[in-house]
Design brief:
With about 190 residues, the protein is α+β, with helices and mostly antiparallel strands. The protein contains 5 helices and 7 strands. α1 packs across α2. It is globular, with a radius of gyration of 17 Å.
């Protein structure tokens, strides 16, 4: 496997990435990219100058996964969005490799922190289906994964829950906000 920039001229790879977006998010986040048109639009937006767009390729050129990112806070913070691995290749370290590569890309650009949102729209955690305005921090501290929610994946990679946006996707459907510091500012001599 190799990871490299997804280029705006690589239409063959772009179409594979879009198909992966649709398929990877279909079960738990069906409204994210419900069709090829919306997925292609997302991929094409990733070529803007303040973005990172990286693709994992098998030795035969098959797209295995994709990670995108958006510069925020004058480049100090980058949002990791989205991360998608072809469902038939999940669980093989591809997502972890894409996140590690993304972290290195952010460091090279002088970024300090990466943030991401992990929506819970389908009751995958104990933060879903409840009023988070009541005992919020206790609920975050005692979060449990009920059905393969990605917050645990990111936690294993060093990301920490830094907050929750209650009702982000409708009542009882929060966005779980996670972040990780990936570098420190260089001290001036």
């Amino acid at each position: 496997m190799k990871i490299r920039d997804l280029e705006s001229t690589s239409e063959h790879f772009i179409r594979q990435v879009a198909a992966i977006l649709v398929e990877a998010f279909r079960d738990n986040w069906p409204d994210a990219w419900p069709d090829m048109e919306s997925a292609l639009e997302e991929v094409h937006q990733s070529f803007q100058p303040d973005r990172i767009s990286r693709v994992a390729l098998a030795d035969d050129g098959e797209v295995l996964g994709w990670v995108g990112g958006i510069s925020e806070y004058d480049g100090n913070v980058w949002e990791l969005d989205p991360l998608a691995v072809d469902p038939k290749h999940q669980g093989r370290g591809i997502g972890s490799a894409l996140v590690a590569d993304f972290e290195e890309q952010v460091r090279q650009r002088g970024g300090l922190t990466i943030r991401l949102g992990t929506d819970d729209e389908s009751n995958q955690t104990t933060l879903s289906g409840v009023d988070l305005y009541s005992n919020l921090w206790e609920r975050i501290a005692n979060i449990r994964n009920l059905r393969r929610h990605p917050y645990e994946f990111y936690g294993k990679l060093g990301y920490t829950i830094v907050g929750v946006m209650p009702d982000a996707n409708g009542y009882g459907k929060p966005d779980i906000i996670m972040a990780k510091r990936v570098s420190y500012p260089q001290e001036k001599a």
